[in-house]
Design brief:
It is a single chain. Helices cover 30% and strands 15% of the residues. The chain is of the alpha/beta class. The chain folds into 2 domains: 343 residues, Glycoside hydrolase/deacetylase (TIM Barrel), CATH 3.20.20.370; 38 residues, no CATH class. Strands 1, 2, 3, 12 and 13 form a 5-stranded parallel sheet that branches. A 4-stranded mixed sheet has the order 4-5-8-7. Helix 5 packs across helix 6 and helix 7 runs parallel beside helix 9. The longest helix has 20 residues. The site of zinc ion has 5 residues, from loops.
């Protein structure tokens, strides 16, 4: 255990040294007068655009993490066709890592109007790998994954805008620097348990963040460009914070549909009756698909959200768009629905593919040519 701490500290120290070499400027206290939308926002709980809570659309971010494949697609398909009260299709964001991902199914999610975002190529352990990840490592894991995802799923690269680091383990400044180079818009890896009620709104890193750092190292430099989409944590039944719904420890019994419905509502209402900062339903699919009672509660909960005129389930990048240009509930409901540009897929099943990192071989389904070997870090196209 001691050694783990020492290694962890060394990794963090080397990451800090690395960043120093990159000549980053330490972020200073946010200057509200100079930090203005649409490009800059100080971290805070004030409603953008100076709106009243009741005029502010309650954005809801439902996100699923990890590989997309035949094990979880049925649950995802059950969400197709769902609409917000304004008649527009709902948004869902998928933070997808490469291993065991079926790219034909990623293409299908994209074509159903959902957002595909990045969750790294390797999703590897230990967690200290991410804590100490340098700019180069994050570029190989996320910058290259953006190309990989776009290629194998045949989806436009400019629609891939978000990222979430495995285990929500922050890597200091490096991931945010990579975002600028790689063309990513927002990160949703950073939980807050201090700014829940009222909730923390998304913000930029031009100036120093005031957000609590639950998984250090958090960024310290001034990095104009990327947005932080903070994960406002849920509160479990004994008051402990949880970033993912499935990570809540003191929660209703798995068979208690009514208890789960109320648990979801209580967490939602904290935001909805508060400052209406985006409400996150961050979850892994298995929680819902393996528990019928939770699944029923989830459906009831979504039905209720979709019946409210001032609640909108949106993709992560739509939440950032709203931040840049805040609109009232009425304006938001009047705007045209998101456009769906169809991305074709001619599916191919590839395998068995040998891998460089393990002795097992893989099968994968893609919308392009089959790779020669299983794609991995440093060989994202498997050539
Ligand atoms: Zn994950």
């Amino acid at each position: 255990m001691k050694w783990a701490v020492v290694i962890f500290t060394l990794l963090v120290a080397s990451a800090i040294a690395e960043e120093a070499r990159r000549n980053l400027n330490l972020a200073t206290e946010c200057d509200e007068a100079r930090c203005q939308l649409p490009r800059c926002r100080c971290s805070g709980t004030d409603i953008p655009g100076g709106l009243n809570p009741r005029d502010t659309p309650q954005l809801v971010l439902l996100t699923f993490d990890d590989g997309v494949n035949t094990l979880n697609i049925e649950k995802y398909r059950s969400l197709y066709g769902r609409r917000n009260r304004d008649g527009c299709p709902i948004g869902i964001t998928y933070f997808v890592n490469h291993e065991y991902t079926n790219y034909k199914l990623v293409n299908e999610l994209y074509n159903n109007g959902f957002e595909i975002a990045l969750h790294s190529i390797t999703h590897q352990t230990p967690q200290s790998y991410w804590a100490g990840a340098t700019y180069e490592t994050m570029m190989r894991e996320f910058g290259h994954q953006r190309w990989q995802m776009s290629y194998f799923a045949n989806i436009p690269i400019n629609t891939i805008r978000g990222m979430r680091i495995p285990y929500l383990q922050m890597s200091g400044n490096s991931s945010f620097q990579v975002m600028n180079t790689a063309g990513l818009t927002y990160d949703s890896s950073w939980p807050t348990s201090q700014f829940v009620n009222p909730g923390l709104w998304p913000y930029t890193l031009d100036y120093a963040s005031t957000q609590d750092c639950m998984m250090p190292p958090c960024p310290t430099a001034s990095i104009p460009g990327p947005w932080v989409l903070p994960m406002v944590t849920w509160t479990d039944m004994r008051g402990f914070p949880c970033s993912y719904v499935d990570a809540c420890i003191f929660r209703p019994d798995d068979n208690d549909e009514e208890g789960w419905f109320r648990f979801m509502m209580n967490n939602f209402e904290r935001q909805y009756r508060g400052n209406r900062a985006p409400f996150g339903f961050y979850v892994h699919e298995w929680l819902i698909s393996t528990n019928p009672a939770i699944s029923r509660a989830f459906t009831r909960f979504l039905d209720l959200l979709n019946s409210l005129h001032d609640v909108f389930m949106v993709n992560g990048s739509e939440a950032i768009e709203w931040m840049r240009n805040p609109m009232t509930v009425e304006e938001f409901a009047r705007k045209p629905c998101r456009q769906r540009i169809v991305a074709p897929c001619i599916p191919r099943t590839c395998g068995p593919l040998s891998a460089e990192h393990t002795t097992i071989s893989y099968w994968m389904e893609v919308c392009t040519e089959c790779p020669n070997v299983y794609p991995w870090i440093d060989n994202p196209f498997g050539r």
